[in-house]
Every structure is written in C-alpha cells, then in structure tokens.
Amino acid sequence: MPDLLTWLLVFLRASSLIAVFPVFSITNVPVQVRVALGALVSFLVAPIVPVGDFAGTDFWGIIGVMAKEVGFGLLLGFVARMLFYALEIAGALIGAEIGLSIPSSLNPLSPGQTTEAATVLQYLAAMIFLTLNLHHSLLLAFRRSYQFLPVGGGHLRESLLLDVAGRTGHLFWFALQMSAPVMAISFIITLVFAVLSRAVPQMNVFVENISVRVLVGMIVFALTCQLMGQHIANYLGRLPEDILRVAQLLGTK
Predict the structure, then answer these.
(1) Predicted confidence (pLDDT) per residue in 95-113, tens digit
(2) 246, 149 contact by CB (below 8 A)
(3) Cα separation of 88 and 71, whole Å?
C-alpha cells in the first residue's frame, strides 16, 4: 500500500507537469498519451523515490498531499514552459510592428490564436528543444527534484514567490530582446515616411508605409532567425537548472 500510494503521488506530479510541459502539452497530443506518459515516468521514478510516512495520515490528509503534488507539478511545468510564453509575447510585438497582428491563426503550441511570427518562433523553439534532447534533461531534472522536494513535502515560501515573479518579469525582457531588431527597423521606416510625408505631400504615405513595413519587417525577421535560435537554445539549456532551483526553494526548510 505505501508503494502504491507513492506511485500515485509521483504520477500526480508527473502528469501535472506533462499537462503544461513544452511540446507534449500541445492539442495534437491526445490526453490518453499524456496520461500514459505520466504513468510511464511514474513507474520509472517511483522505485527510487523515498517512501513517505503516511501511517498516521487520515483520508483528508492524503487528499491534501495529492493536491499539493498536483500544484507542485503544475508549478514545475509552468517554469519549463515560460520560454514559450515569452515567444508568444515576442511574436505579438513583431506582428504588431510589421502589420501581421490582424490575420491571426490557430497555433497547436498555444491554446488560442496567435500571430504568424509567434507560431514560427514557437515551432523553432520546439525543434531546438527536441533536437538538443532537452526533454531528456528535463525528465532527469524531474527525477532529481525529489532530492530537494520529497513526496508530501514542500511549502510555499516568500523566496519562491520572489523567484517565480522574477522569472515572470524576465519573460517581458526576453520578448523585448527577441523583437528588438524588427521594432528598430519599424521605427526607422516610420521616421522615413514621416519625413517623406512632409517633403512629398501628394504621396499616399499610409498605403506605402504598410507595404514597405511588411516587406522589410519580414526580411529582417528572416535574417535574425538564426540569432533568435541561439538565444532560444541558451534559454532552453538553463531549464533543467531552473526546475531544480524551484524544487529546492519549495523543499527548503
């Protein structure tokens, strides 16, 4: 019975993490596959997890521990998925600058509609994520998280809230860095056409501005995709340490 309860608690944390895990949480992956993947990860991790002492815990105490494990899994998954939220913000900024924010499209990597630029960036991040085998590193970090955050342990603390708030604030800075080249060229185009509108009043500045902005913005976006990929790879490489850091803050006594 203790082994079954330990497996169930590991399954709850693993399945909650996979529910918001990058790539595996997309709508194209059936719920049955996510549950099966969570069960498989639990079968592999549960034998090496220390068995918790739940001898004197009543029914509602066990329910509270289960809810805690679900919350911890969602928090770890949220930290792992932060990059994709940042890319969605960067894509929205880029789409607004080059005039592609109106024709939004369905994005399998996002629960709602996003701009085309955000879809491209998120697909780029997903390919880098799988190419570098970072899903293996994140699963290994999930296993190591039990060293800092045992089953049934852990509490919310001020240091954890400050750390998560800092990471969330960093999303906007990262999104601004990703969209900075397109925003800069958009500002230059706006400035040039403002001068032309004064020099040549007969020019239809509005129509010409849109066409040039879209063309030049897409060219700059394509030329900077390699640089964006390097930034994405650097951010993704830090995800296992970020998950372990959050687990350590949760389990700190």
Answers:
(1) 888 877 665 555 555 555 6
(2) no
(3) 24
Q: How far is the C-alpha of 84 from the C-alpha of 199, rounded, in Å?
A: 44
Specify the 3-state DSSP secondary structure of 171.
helix
User: Would the CA dihedral through 80, 81, 86, 91 be positive or negative?
Assistant: positive
CA 57 and chain centroid, separation:
36
- How many angstroms separate the CA atoms of 181 and 176, rounded? 9
Q: Structural domain boundaries of the chain?
A: 2-251
- Phi and psi at 56, nearest 5°, equal -95, 15
Q: Which pLDDT score, from 0 to 100, does residue 2 have? A: 47
Alpha carbon distance 194, 172 (integer Å):
29
pTM of the complete model: 0.80
pLDDT band of 1, cuts 50, 70, 90: very low
Question: Tokens in use for 136?
Answer: 């293996």
Burial of 124 (0-12, 13-18, 19+ CB in 10 A): middle
Cα–Cα distance measured from residue 137 to residue 241, given in angstroms and rounded to the nearest whole number: 10
Give 114's strand partners. Answer: 105
101-127 average pLDDT score: 70
Distance CA 62, CA 235 (A): 37
Helix or strand (DSSP H, E) at 114: strand 113-114
Residue 83, both tokens? 């990059």
